[in-house]
Amino acid sequence: MFRKVLYPTDFSENSKKAIKCINALKPEAVTILHVIDEDPFDIYEELTVGVDYDVEKVKNHLINEAKRKAEKIAKEIGNAKIEVVIGEPWIEIVKRSENYDLIVLGAFGSGGILERLLGSTAEAVLRHSKCSVLVVR
User: Fold this and answer.
1) C-alpha angle with apex 71: 100 to 127, nearest 5 degrees?
2) Of 84, 85, 86, 129, which one's alpha carbon is 20 to 30 angstroms from that of 65?
């Protein structure tokens, strides 16, 4: 039923709980997606005008670290594709949702009432996704 699964992760302990669910589903294809939030870079670039600091180096370092962490997860899942991008997490997840049968992601607790139960990213993905979403607590 769920042949293609998208697994967005922030590498937190909570998001790692989704791995068991993915393995139980035994999908044909899994994509591990990590989205590096672009907002801190925008703010930092504004604050460091005139300072000799290479934001691109920092971005590349974060991308490489995320790929390294995702490779460890890929070994747990089996044959999984890895994507690391910079952007707004929920938007990047939803953009990809039409290419998958299921999104499996961890819940997180902060923010408003619904956000406290699910997390702001999970809540936005649930509202806007073009495929089924499984939120793991």
Assistant:
1) 30
2) 129
